[in-house]
């Protein structure tokens, strides 16, 4: 049985909710990623911000990324998956919520991220095709 930890990208890092979007962008550049999980004051996942969020929700609206924090962009309940979850549960979570990146948690700590690229790299073509159909389907 393939588990979340088998297909995740290890070494994911998060930023705290107080970090500015400028700092978030710098971390994204350093790690060569397009999304960062955001932690609250207790070190728990409270959201995810993407490079697109920074552009669309901050820069395009004329806001200063040196003053806007990660917390300002975090919306809704963050989704995550346990490291030992079956890959079918991973796909279901991503499909049902139409998300393209999923933090992987083990013992209440961030241990990795699963992205569309990880799904494509590690799973059979038929499973990837079904996943893509769910994520990108306009009728979903």
From TrEMBL:
CBS domain: from which residue to which, for each copy? 8-65, 73-130
- Tell me the domain of life: Bacteria
Matching entries from CDD domains are given as:
CBS_pair_HRP1_like
Supply the alphabetized keyword list.
Answer: CBS domain
Q: Which Gene3D superfamilies match?
A: CBS-domain (3.10.580.10)
Which residue stretches, if any, does this entry annotate as coiled coil? Answer: none
InterPro entries attached here?
CBS_dom (IPR000644), CBS_dom_sf (IPR046342), Diverse_CBS-Domain (IPR051257)
Q: Which PANTHER family does the record match to this protein?
A: CBS DOMAIN-CONTAINING PROTEIN (PTHR43080:SF2), CBS DOMAIN-CONTAINING PROTEIN CBSX3, MITOCHONDRIAL (PTHR43080)
Official protein name in the record: CBS domain-containing protein
**Species whose genome carries this gene:** Streptomyces triculaminicus
């Amino acid at each position: 049985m393939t588990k979340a930890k088998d297909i995740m990208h290890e070494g994911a890092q998060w930023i705290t909710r107080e970090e500015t979007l400028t700092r978030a962008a710098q971390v994204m550049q350093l790690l060569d990623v397009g999304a960062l999980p955001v932690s609250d004051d207790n070190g728990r996942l409270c959201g995810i911000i993407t490079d697109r969020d920074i552009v669309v929700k901050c820069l395009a609206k004329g806001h200063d990324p040196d003053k806007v924090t990660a917390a300002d962009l975090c919306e809704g309940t963050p989704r995550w998956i346990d490291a030992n979850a079956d890959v079918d549960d991973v796909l279901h979570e991503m499909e049902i919520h139409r998300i393209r990146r999923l933090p992987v948690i083990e013992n209440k700590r961030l241990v990795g991220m699963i992205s569309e690229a990880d799904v494509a790299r590690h799973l059979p073509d038929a499973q990837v095709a079904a996943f893509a159909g769910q994520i990108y389907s306009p009728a979903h």
